[in-house]
Every structure is written in structure tokens, then in C-alpha cells.
Amino acid sequence: MPERLLHRASPATNLLLLGAFLSVALGSESLLVRAGALLLVPSLALLSGEGPRNLVRRGRFLLLFALVLILSQALFVRDGRTLFSFWPRFTTGGLEAGAGMALRFLLIVSSSLLFVLVTDADRLGAWIARLRVPYRHGAVVVLALRFLPLFRHELRAVRDAQRVRGIEASLRTPRGLLRAARYTFLPVLVAGLSRADALAISMVGRGFGLHPRRTRRPCPPLGWSDAAGVILSLLLVAATVVSRQARWP
Fold it and tell me: Using CA atoms, how far apart are residues 212 and 210, in angstroms rounded to an integer?
């Protein structure tokens, strides 16, 4: 399958786009700007070839946690006009504060997830090497991106093994969440540490770190995907600045 949009862009462009999304999440006070930037994230993922089913599966927990943020702010913030006088009492200030916090959380997490999905670890390592960063330090970033899919695979394997043994905790209640964490966290942690130990032994056996320099993979030339990513990043930053100056809602 040919690479599309952000998969074809350089890691520098994807990192710039991530920084633009973070600037909107942390710098803009406008709910409309944050909501518009949040809608851009799944749109860019779909245009880059990521399936909608994959996005929905990853976004269910984020939406649930965002709803908890909205409700917590709506219950405890009493600023603004009262919307419901009976208990629980909701005010416009509480709902705005909850919506702002939820949009900030969703935008930060979803844009970071988009960066991980569309950025190739090898290309990122080659780009870091071009910045004259020691390859030992660059390898940390590359390995972090490499290990994320492995942890998801280990988590899926642990849950499948639990279902075979008749252990299936519901994630819809706090008690079910605690039970799932109890039976899942330790096996995934042990599996991850075992993989890390095996990787360290393999790297030592191949002489990693023996020489101060190493050969690096050539970076492909920039294309139209990079131009589109840079333009979109500038538009997001401009929207952040304008929304703060004009005090957009």
C-alpha cells in the first residue's frame, strides 16, 4: 500500500505539526479553535491511510475520560449563569471550564498519538542524526517508538490468555478497572522488561556504542506532503495568536 500524506512527510514536518497542535491546546483560550484543531486530527489520520476502526478503538477511553473531566468541572465550578437550579447545579462557567479542559486533554493526546502512528522510527533516527545529535541519544527516541506497538501486542496477548483462563474483568465500573489493572499490569511489565533486557544484550553483541560515530540512513527529499504540513502548522499557530488577541469564544 503506498504511503499517504503524513506517512510520506518527513519526521521534522510531523514534529512541527505536533508542536502546532500543542500550541493550540496550551496557548489558545478559544473553545472553537480547540474544537476545530481536534477535528483536524482524525481527518489527517484518515487522509494518511489510518483506518476509522483503528481510530475508534483507540479513542473510546479518551472520550470517556474527557466526559469525566467535563462532569467534574461542571459539578465544582460555580462561576457564570446557573442553568439548572436543582442538584446537581450546573453553571455556564462550569461547563465552559469542563469543555476547555476536555478539549485540551483530547487535543494533546490525540495529536501525540497521530505523531506516533504516522512517523517512521528509522526515518526519525536518520533525521535526528542529521542534527548532529549523538546516535546513542537518538536511539532512545527510536526505541521508544519501536516499543509502543510491542507493548500493545503484549497487552493483547495477556488479555487473550486471561479470557482463556476465564478471567475477564469489566472496564465499565471502578471495581472492574482495578481488577483489570491488577491482573494485567504485572504481566505486561514483566514482558516489557524481558524484551528490553533481550534488546540490550543484542545491542551489546552487535557493538552498539563501540564507535563515536556510525553510518546514517540518507533522508529523502522534501515533497508536497511536507509543504502541506508546514502550511497547516503555520495556520494553527496563527489561529492561536489571533484567537488570544481577538478573544474569540
Answer: 7
CA distance 136 to 131: 13
Helix (H, G, I), strand (E, B) or coil at 34: helix
pTM above 0.85, yes or no: no
Residuewise pLDDT in 10s, the chain (249 residues): 457 788 888 888 999 999 999 999 999 999 999 999 999 999 998 888 887 666 666 677 788 888 888 888 888 887 777 776 666 777 888 888 899 999 999 999 999 989 988 888 888 888 887 777 887 787 888 888 878 778 878 888 888 887 787 776 666 666 766 777 777 888 888 888 888 888 888 888 888 877 777 776 677 778 888 999 999 999 999 999 999 998 887
User: Residue 111: which of 12, 45, 177, 208 has the closest Cα?
Assistant: 45
